[in-house]
Amino acid sequence: MEEHPQKLEFTTDEFNKMKEGAEAFYKTIGSVQCPYFKENINFNVEGFEHLKFKAWNRARSKSDQFMRLKLLRLAPETIRNSKTLQGISEEKIFVRKKRNSRWEKILTEVTYYEFVAVLDRKRVKVIVKQISGGEKFFWTMIPYWRTNSLHKRILHDGYPETD
Fold it and tell me: What pTM value is reported for the model?
């Protein structure tokens, strides 16, 4: 028997309420101790913006945002309980940085660390980002909800910067 992903339906009011609630929750997190790194992972503005935007000035679809924001409460717990790294990706990408009071794109080494957890019967992948040896911070969470034509789960597009 074929399984089809459940269609995500919500009203504009439900979306706005979810977004406001998730943002209020996110602001209370601050940082979370990660047993794998033995250090704090910061939940800064970049991580929350990435839940809403795939790239600078390019918004995610409302259904994508809604699912990520709905499951956001699982991100701190995933990091807090992660003793094993599930994946690592190192890339050189252009990062927007303010230099001499203007924004520039600078080619920078970035490392993405992946942690997977099943919490409250929901499977999520949390990505922690580190830019050129700087502090590690929450980047995104990827719910396991899409399937391909063979009904296999698609976790992400394979490019951590936009996932």
Answer: 0.82
